[in-house]
Amino acid sequence: MTNYREILRLDSLGINKVNIAASCSCSRNTVANVLQKAKENNLSYPLPDELSDKQLSEILFPPSEFKPTYKMPDYDYVHREMAKSGVTLTLLWLEYCDACRESGEIPYQSTQFNKYYNDYLKVTNATMHINHKPGEILQIDWAGDVAHVINTDTGELISAYVFVSSLPYSGYSYVEAFFSMEQESWINAHVNAFKYYGGITRIIQCDNLKTGVDKHTRNEVILNKSYQEMAEHYGTAIIPCRVRKPKDKAHAEGTVGIISTYILAAIRNQQFLSLTELNESIKERLEIFNNKPFQKKEGSRFTAFTEEKLFLLPLPQRQFELSKWKIATVGPNYHISVDNQNYSVPYEYIKHKVDVRITKNVIEVFFDGNRICSHPRLYGRFGQYSTVESHMPSNHQKYVSWNAERFIKWAEKIGVNTTFIIRFFLNRYKVEQQGYKSCMALLKLADKYSVERLEAACTKVLTYTLTPEYKNIQLLLQTGQDKITESDIATAQSSDTEHFSFTRGADYYKRSDD
């Protein structure tokens, strides 16, 4: 599905239609059509927060509009068949039309069929020289060679992976080493590179590595969610290279080779005891590299960069904060769990799956692309709860002004056993607030039956079970069994024995001499 929101965002950054089409994996005509429809509907980026992707699609292209979809020929197959004797484009077009009719799809006419084949030949057989514009593209990659840091405890060598970024227009580069190529290192490398350049290019060109691109096919490009979020924060566009097409970022590939020789090879015999020490040495060599005079023209990479820097986009006021995403299901207690801490969600979303954005300080919850709530992130002991009153059902909100300490203090005024049962009610639920209703109902019995009788009922029920229920105590009070003591039971048993004893006496059983 075409990402209309991304097209509008990139257009607002001044990206031309060709690059927007490349970033969003669609045609230039599609980009032009979307922008025209947005103009007709008075839509511009940023869009309203409450406007979902589905609503945006329906506004731009109502369901009533019908747009035919043509079947794109397999030009890899066409090219192979054209190498065979006697095969012509006309013959292949007729076969293509027959195949489309059998599958119920719409074929291109011969003119378009031939045009797309010529485009295919140009792309696959020709190498084009690209004149880069200043401040337009930043090309990035991981160097194939690695550096090493010595483990001070074991003496073993730890691999350090080298991130390389380069501006094609000036050749100005940034290099930094990391202990891993995971998501956190990948994002931090970008943030540090932007800070080093003092600005941002309109386009970032990268490989199809998993930390940046989740999926790259002929029809679509799906970026890693954190990577896409970083691009939106800095107002740039991510355009991955085509799969197995290193010429798409030939400048970065060349720079990687040069840096591997000029920097990494130069420090190969040095020993580093920390990553900081390694990066300081890389930085020294990098400054020499960027200020080294060109061989075939005047100036250096640094002098060329001073001109290009004027065309870079300004850095945002706030540095990007790396986030992680996960999918969570809202539980019956209207909370989700993140790293063994619990955060409330409006109770209407119970049993729904939500997207959770996790940063160092904030937890944000999204449903269908819309943010529904956020919480300060909890740290410390496991099992803590962050609960917002408005997220609770109305029958739970009645008890929000109460807390465990208040219930316990009230119970202590009644008696020890009442306090024990109140503590039991508070601890039996995952969410403490769910026990407030039972606590309130139990303590209110003192108003109806007296404090003494409630304590007596709690004492008696604990002789039967250590997991009492509110109904057990209520039943004891209703039937008056809380008033019956052990002595009363003994007296009752004694009176029953006397009532049913024999009263005839011994004389009654004497035998007569007669």
Note down, in words, how this protein is organized:
The chain is of the alpha+beta class and 514 residues long. The protein has five domains: 4-57, no CATH class; 75-125, no CATH class; 137-311, Ribonuclease H-like superfamily/Ribonuclease H (Nucleotidyltransferase, domain 5, 2-Layer Sandwich); 324-397, no CATH class; 404-496, no CATH class. Helix content is 43%, strand content 16%. The protein has 19 helices and 14 strands. It has helices at 4-12, 17-24, 28-40, 53-60, 75-82, 89-103, 110-125, 183-197, 225-234, 250-264, 275-291, 301-308, 394-397, 404-412, 416-427, 436-449, 451-464, 470-479, 486-499; strands spanning 137-150, 157-166, 173-178, 203-206, 213-216, 221-223, 237-240, 324-329, 335-338, 341-344, 353-358, 362-367, 370-376, 385-386. The N and C termini lie far apart (120 Å).
